[in-house]
């Protein structure tokens, strides 16, 4: 939340798998990599919920397929889906992509892995705030008439299944970050795994990518206020859609009742 979907750029080369757990500076990394790699980044949280209809559907397919890859054909289909999502992007990050690092490495063997991290207590405090915004009962109801938001419930159930398959727990809980980071140490070759905190600024990130430090301020994205503004936009848009739908329904039933009364009166006149 707190950021608009990005668009692919023809010819962009996929270079970086952002493997940090949500709320570890992934949105800041998104902006920094866009500058350093001269191309758009695919924030999987943003794109899978608010991107193009192709991206939304494909992410749902990816999350459904991942836990049940049993054959070579399944793996090849997964590779195809992942490449179709990241074609035209220089990097990806956030969940659900961070949950699928081994699968993305298989599709892009030359990409490096940059895992953003932060102190556990501050991460969980931020994560609980985000969960409170996104996991309430009424959000799916409010946005149900918004075309792109109709998959919120489906997204949630598939991500829960994905998390349970990968980490043994549904959704993102307090221990998930530590479990996820240990998982990365086990599945990513040490020479390809780079740990990074956005508080460190340009220098270590540029060293990882082997690029010069740019002459621009280091970005900072997705503060708590920005996330809340994004949530508010969803609520306002959803409320507006409900007003429109209820207005149409009121108009329909009003004129339907008039028509039925006219039909009834004509029937009575004929009987007389």
Automatic annotation (TrEMBL):
Keywords: Membrane, Transmembrane, Transmembrane helix
Record bears the keyword DNA damage: no
Superkingdom to which the source organism belongs: Eukaryota
Pfam families the UniProt entry points to: Sulfotransfer_4
InterPro entries: P-loop_NTPase (IPR027417), Sulfotransfer_4 (IPR040632)
Entry's transmembrane regions: 234-254
Identification of the protein by name: NAD dependent epimerase/dehydratase
């Amino acid at each position: 939340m707190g950021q608009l979907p990005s668009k692919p750029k023809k010819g962009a080369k996929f270079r970086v798998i952002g493997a940090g757990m949500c709320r570890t500076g992934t949105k800041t990394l998104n902006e920094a990599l866009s500058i350093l790699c001269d191309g758009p980044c695919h924030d999987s949280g943003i794109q899978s919920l608010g991107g193009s209809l192709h991206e939304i559907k494909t992410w749902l397919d990816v999350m459904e397929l991942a836990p049940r890859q049993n054959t070579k054909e399944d793996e090849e289909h997964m590779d195809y889906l992942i490449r179709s999502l990241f074609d035209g992007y220089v990097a990806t990050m956030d969940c659900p992509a961070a949950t699928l690092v081994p699968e993305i490495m298989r599709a892009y063997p030359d990409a490096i892995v940059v895992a953003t991290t932060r102190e556990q207590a501050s991460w969980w405090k931020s994560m609980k705030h985000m969960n409170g915004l996104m996991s309430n009962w009424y959000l799916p109801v409010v946005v149900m008439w918004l075309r792109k938001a109709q998959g919120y419930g489906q997204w949630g159930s598939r991500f829960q299944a994905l998390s349970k398959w990968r980490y043994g727990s549904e959704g993102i809980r307090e221990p998930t970050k530590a479990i996820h980071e240990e998982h990365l140490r086990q599945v990513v070759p040490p020479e390809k795994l780079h740990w990074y905190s956005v508080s460190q600024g340009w220098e270590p990130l540029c060293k990882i990518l082997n690029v010069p430090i740019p002459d621009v301020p280091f970005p900072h994205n997705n503060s708590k206020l920005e996330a809340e503004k994004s949530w508010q936009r969803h609520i306002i848009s959803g409320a507006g859609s409900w007003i429109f739908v209820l207005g149409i329904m009121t108009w329909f039933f009003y004129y339907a009742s008039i028509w039925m009364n006219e039909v009834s009166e004509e029937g009575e006149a004929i009987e007389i």
